[in-house]
Amino acid sequence: MRIRNHSRAPGLVLGFALLITVIPEIGNLRFIAPASAQQGTSTKQQSDALNAYRSAVSKFEQVLRQRRAQLDAHETLPNLPGQALYLARNEMISTYKDLTDLVPSQVGKPNKFEIPPAYFEARNEPLLDEYYRLFDLLDAPPANAQKSDTPFKDVADLGTAIARAKGLDAANAEIAGRIAVGIFFAETNGVQNAGNARSNKYKGSFQTGPSEDQTGRAAWALIKPRVAALDPALIARDDREEARIGNLDHRLNHWTNVRDALMGTHADIFPQVGTIAKMLPDPIDQMKLFELMQIIPSPTRAALRSGNLLNHRISDPTVMGYLRNNSIFAYGQADRARTSANYREILDAMWLFNAKFEQARLKFDEIRAR
Predict the structure, then answer these.
(1) For residue 243, with 0-12 CB atoms within 10 Å meaning exposed, 13-18 middle and 19 or more buried, which class applies?
(2) Strand, coil or helix: what is 24?
(3) Is the dihedral angle over the CA atoms 331, 113, 179, 256 positive or is it negative?
(4) CA 267 to CA 234: how far, in whole Å?
């Protein structure tokens, strides 16, 4: 999802004759371009918005076709082959939001991706289906990655064990385990050992960089004796995974990448889980806050220290840029023009994460029910 890394309306009434255009085939699917508007009065601004949206959809289709053709032909891909896809998708969403801002009555039906209908026209669901299929290929784990047969349970177990070692009781440690599973879905849609088609720096199940990995490994060495006292079986597993990865990049092993990422970014906040759960009783909001620890860790720590988390305001342009780069306030002119936001507004703007975190919540409940 991040580059720290990184989801059908009626015709638009803008004064154009109804026109439906068949778009060339992408893979084994055929797509239909957005219907133009029914007859009515249109302003120049509305017409421009519609044309910009049409152009963005067309560009997204072109990029999808190009990347699919390259993959099918086994051609050499450009550096960061997912970046053009990502930017084209963003432009499609952004221009549609600009359009619906001008003509609110044209907000269409809900879509299966649970994107707010003001941002996404449900007729374009097949385009996003293809987008995600392409990223499944582009972000495929490297050949030397070491997978786990129980990837989701590993994440839940590690999050819970680290939280217990940090002093949490069983109930709050379970919340930490659920949050850890949420981060896994937010970063890779629950795909272990994922690559990153948008960055040469980040990789693995939790999409960490080299410095984060080193920091996490050092922190784990310090806390490991406490974890061993609480859960000897988990430490026995840890020893096996350490032997297995040896001197290779620890981000290539699902277990060690998750462990080190949690230790490097989240473990020092785990003691506050109980307080956070009282401030944010919704499990989805809890996961969003910890995902912000992935995206903007220093501002989020400052917000937690402030004593007024939800009203703590971000106004630094660089930090706002990091948020936009991770699909928060990224779509449409109104969102992109924002110069500040408080944490309640930021959490609400993380709607692209909602479906991922709901999946995580259900997966965690399934794990714990076994």
Answers:
(1) exposed
(2) strand
(3) negative
(4) 17
d(CA 215, CA 166): 17
Token duo for residue 154: 């590993």
Hey, how many other C-beta atoms are within 10 angstroms of the C-beta on 136? Answer: 12
**CA 246 and chain centroid, separation:** 30
Question: Phi/psi class of residue 74: alpha, beta or left (left: φ > 0; alpha: ψ in -120 to 50)?
Answer: left
* Tally of CB atoms within 10 A around 186: 27
Cα gap 179→160, rounded to integer Å? 9
Q: How far apart are CA 300 and CA 57, in angstroms?
A: 35
- pTM for this model (two decimals): 0.87
The one-character DSSP state at 195 is -
Per-residue model confidence as pLDDT tens digits over 32-86 = 344 444 444 579 999 999 999 999 999 999 999 999 999 999 999 999 999 999 9
Residue where the block lists tokens 């026209």: 121
Residue 109: other Cβ atoms inside 10 A: 11
Q: Which two tokens stand for residue 157?
A: 């177990």
CB atoms within 10 A of CB 148: 18
Rounded Cα distance between 52 and 69, Å, is 26
The pLDDT tens digits for 167-195 are 999 999 999 999 999 999 999 999 999 99
For the four alpha carbons of 241, 197, 314 and 329, in that order, the dihedral sign comes to: negative
To which H or E segment does residue 313 belong? strand 313-314
The radius of gyration of the chain from alpha carbons, rounded to an integer in Å, stands at: 22
Retrieve residue 287's tokens.
């996961």
How far is Cα of residue 145 from the mean position of the Cα atoms in its chain? Answer: 22
Parallel, antiparallel, or unpaired for β 341-342 and 22-26?
unpaired
- Residue 147, C-beta contacts closer than 8 angstroms, at least 6 positions apart: 141, 192, 193, 254
Amino acid symbol at 198: R
What distance in Å separates the CA atoms of residue 99 and residue 334, rounded to the nearest whole number? 11
Q: Which residues of 323-361 are buried (b: 16+ CB within 10 A; e: fewer)?
A: bbbbbbbbbbeebeebeebbbebbbebbbbbbbbbbebb
